[in-house]
Amino acid sequence: MQKTLLRGILNLLPLAVSVWLCWSITVALDDMGHAVLTLIGLGNQWTGSGFILIFCLLLVAGVAFSVSPIIWLYQKLEKQILRFPFFRTIYTSIKDLASLAGSDGSKAQKRQTVLFKQSNGTFIIGFVTSESIPKAVNDALPNDQWVPVLIQMSYQVAGITSLVKRSDLIYVDWPFEDAMRFMLTAGISPAKPK
């Protein structure tokens, strides 16, 4: 009975939490849209109208940010706002997280999965996150070609960034998403069949 209950929880919990999270975000956006509608004097419309308003506003913003003058103005505004240290810390963290979540897959494809050997003969799985490192760091390191490698921690969002010689890396033909799933679950999550 205990195994059956556990099997039910393990299968339904991810679905239930995902549905709950998506529903909560949808309701929050709908409430935000209703607040905007009330602010402009249209009062409380039908359920879902606030969500549609926010969706349309985001669509218009996406189109607007493809126009150079709008991008230039936004960058100027962003630069002025980022003069406040506390706000800068919060804003840049959220912006980095949003850009990571909103990547269309092209950035994920550039994150090459690699292995590198430790001194005790074991290997660590990591991801090359960039083809270059900051000049100040590069100047401080011995002459060689160094790249940043992210070592993701299991069940955490955090990871460790190591600088590794490119010659010490073993490049692996393993999609970023599959390797990340393996690392985040410490190998417990089964690999997708090919």
Automatic annotation (TrEMBL):
The chain crosses the membrane at residues 12-29, 49-74. The keyword Metal-binding does not apply. It comes from the Bacteria. It holds the Pfam family DUF502. InterPro entries: COV1-like. Signal peptide: none annotated. Keywords: Membrane, Transmembrane, Transmembrane helix. This is DUF502 domain-containing protein. It comes from Psychromonas ingrahamii (strain DSM 17664 / CCUG 51855 / 37).
